Amino acid sequence: MQIQEAHDLLDPTWPQVLIMEDEVSVAKGLGMVLSEEGYNVDLAMTGRSALDTFNQKMFDLLIADLRLPDIDGMEVIKQVKRRRPDTEVLVITGYSTVTTAVEAMKLGASDYLSKPFTEDEFLSAVKGALVTKEFMAADAAATPLEPLPEDSLRLTEVLQQIRQRFTGRQQEVITILQMVQNAVGYIPIEALQQVADFTRMPEAAVYGIATFYERFRLSPVGRHVVKVCRGTACHVKGADKILHEIEHRYKLSPGQTSKDRMFTLETVACFGSCAIAPVVVVDDKVSADMDPDKVGKVMKDLALNDPKFEPR
Ligand code: FES
């Protein structure tokens, strides 16, 4: 089985939505509205069942009620975002306050809808939450990074060491994947195929393990990692303009690495440094009160001082 087939198998038709709502009639009603629009919908009536479902399946969007019979909806959002930061979250609640709205946005929720709301308001919030994800997915898919010759060289060497050191048991897969990542910097697709052969596991299963653990990367990382905060405080003070400047200047979307492997762009829900917003972190160095010009200068200086810099 090829990797693309494995991916399709693990992450079927887009978009997958999980509705976490304890009022059965509301949950079913919202589910029906989305199903009619072509969304794939799962329902969870409690926080725990939402987390269980989330652990078994990939979701593009979590629609989260905050008051649940067992655990706090905020806690569920926190765990979901920790496990898979790219899951979009739409909060729906009958007990809205500014504090809870700010808290939800800080946790990474894309939108916040107070009950009661109309079907149109609900649908437009769902579509809005998924727009960024759709755009990023399409953009990332359009520009896959080719492995460099040195990647292939390092991969060959490390696979040789792996064959000498391991016996090919399935329990060894995680350690083997970690070795590949340590040697190459990420896990190339061809490595997944070779690890599957070596351990006699289906490629889909190896792919599933590599995508399940956050520590594994399936694409190269740049020599400099630029993280832009998109939390509420930074958003209010112009984080989007900073992000737009980087996207425009370096033709990068969040999650992507530039073709020359100079920069990887990432976004973060909150660095916990809201008092100095907007915040950008470059290679673990925190920069306060940023604006598009300042971030442009920081990145330009890094590029000029990079030994592999080649003027375009
Ligand atoms: S919102 Fe907290 S650091 Fe940006």
What pattern of helices and strands is seen along the backbone? Answer: HEHEHEHEHEHHHHHEHHEEEH
Q: How many strands appear in the DSSP assignment?
A: 9
Q: What would you call the shape? A: flat
Helix content: 40-55%
CATH class of the largest domain: Alpha Beta
Total separate domains: 3
Give me the CATH fold name of the largest domain: Rossmann fold
Question: How large is the count of helical segments?
Answer: 13
Q: What ligands are attached or bound here?
A: FE2/S2 (inorganic) cluster
Structural class: alpha/beta
Averaging pLDDT over every residue, what do you get?
A: 83
CATH architecture of the largest domain: 3-Layer(aba) Sandwich
**What order do the strands of the largest sheet run in, or round the barrel if closed?**
2-1-3-4-5
